[in-house]
Design goal:
8% of the residues lie in helices and 40% in strands. By secondary structure, the chain is mainly beta. Bound molecules: FE2/S2 (inorganic) cluster.
Length: 182
């Protein structure tokens, strides 16, 4: 376990009210620290992941939720990668070309998407950044390199830390299609 000073974030950020999340099932949220996350309410549990898909930045708040042989996943709307809600692993199905009946579900490419810690306090969903000192693929959308892209996509100067949490309604600003198919 990492000790203080090795990337552990102490602060919890307000993300959304639990009652609102229960109604919508999902919410794209910009936290006070500028991180864009997708929050899901599935089977009485709350999950918080980086919003932009590790692969090429697809909008996970538009993804379908599926139960993949016992693992709850969000399926990215752009290229259909399945990402586990609880760990951020990218899953795939493996088939033996010499024995097509030999199918292995839920093979893991490893943890690709950052999943953040969630705490529920009264009606508040609070989110704590996971250990940012351990780089993950989805982190790259929060670097300077992607700042313009994200701002353009969301049509807001979203990377300015704001005292208030700003929410963007689902389906309001982005298409579920990858850039190549728009
Ligand atoms: S952008 Fe998500 S699977 Fe490609």
């Amino acid at each position: 376990m990492a000790s203080k000073g090795e990337g552990v974030q102490e602060q919890f950020y307000f993300a959304v009210s639990l009652s609102e999340l229960k109604q919508s099932g999902r919410k794209r949220v910009i936290l006070e620290n500028g991180r864009v996350i997708a929050v899901f309410y599935v089977k009485d549990e709350v999950y918080a992941l980086d919003h932009f898909c590790y692969h090429t930045g697809g909008p996970l708040d538009m993804g379908d939720i599926e139960d993949s042989h016992g693992r709850l996943c969000v399926v990215c709307p752009w290229h259909k990668h399945s990402i586990t809600l609880d760990t951020g692993e990218s899953l795939y199905t493996s088939i033996d070309p010499f024995n097509i009946r030999n199918v292995k579900h839920n093979c893991s490419k490893g943890v690709k998407q950052r999943v953040h810690h969630v705490r529920i306090h009264e009606d508040k969903v609070l989110v704590q950044m996971s250990d940012l000192s351990q780089p993950l693929d989805s982190d790259r959308y929060f670097t300077e390199e992607y700042k313009d892209l994200i701002e353009g996509v969301l049509k807001e100067p979203i990377l300015q830390p704001n005292r208030r949490t700003v929410t963007v309604p689902i389906h309001s600003t982005r298409t579920g299609l990858p850039p190549s198919k728009r």
